[in-house]
Amino acid sequence: MTDERSAADVFGLLADETRVEILRAVAVAQYELAGVGSGPAELAFSEIYEHVPVENTSKLSYHLGELVGTYLRKGDDGYSLSHAGERIVRFILSGNYERPASVGPEPVAGVCVFCGAEALEASLDHQFFRVDCTACETQVAGHPVTPAQVRRRDADDLVRSVTLRSAEDYRQIRRGLCPECGGDLSTEVVHLPGSPLPDADPFLAKSDCAACLREYNSPLTYSVAYHPASIAFHWDRGVDVTTKAVWEFHEHVREGRWTSERVADDPPAYEAVLRRGDDAVRLRLDSSATVTRTERVRRESGDLPRS
Ligand SMILES: [Zn+2]
Ligand SMILES: [Zn+2]
């Protein structure tokens, strides 16, 4: 589908208080009207007129005409939000254009993946959540946050919310879905020469979204940590890996419990091994970091080579 309109035209449509009020009124009215199991309600012209301060019906009619097609849909029973209308109005209602309060530095559990020190601190930097090692002064994790996510949360709650969102993002990324825009991701396994990552896991899963240009990088073992085989393996051992933040994985790589290696060249294949106690889960990946095979291994049976 091609669209001839420029982004400036599309956003220019919103440079008008009445139109923003119309979108807000539609969202609020839909929220109040929608019953469980019903789709989003369409709002009749007269209902919108009641809720929007506009001089007369012909002015309202003009503004609605400008919004329909981009921000509103017109159906048999009235108006509802389009995808762009949804995104814009949620953005406005959540106040996510405001500046978030500053947070931290707040100590968090875990060790530095680069130097092994237990000296991690979380903070907000230019509206970006980051975890830094205070011993070697290196950033060890980062995740975008929204002002709505920061508002009314103390530092502990914010860390928990980032952990949850990042675990959910990893699960979507692993399935080739861009968490930001829903576009297709292309992923490749890369080995960065001179990478500061520990030798135990020298590979990165590198994903790019051609639609919105977001990039996502993670050590190969982290990219499989939220795979169902890993979730089940850890769950059986009393660990809910889906509630763990990526910086809590660092110690596993540092101490060589989580490892990755290239096991074939043509076509390239990789193996990630996540060990816990005497057991391990082994995941085979192709060059697009897709898991092609999983198996659980009991180390005492002797068939898991220690790396
Ligand atoms: Zn460090
Ligand atoms: Zn995207």
From TrEMBL:
Domain DUF7347: 8-92
InterPro entries to which the protein is assigned, alphabetical: DUF7347, DUF7351, WH-like_DNA-bd_sf
Database matches in Pfam families: DUF7347, DUF7351
Domain DUF7351: from-to ranges: 110-291
Domain of life per record: Archaea
Protein name: Uncharacterized protein
Organism: Halogeometricum rufum
Native organism taxonomy: Archaea, Methanobacteriati, Methanobacteriota, Stenosarchaea group, Halobacteria
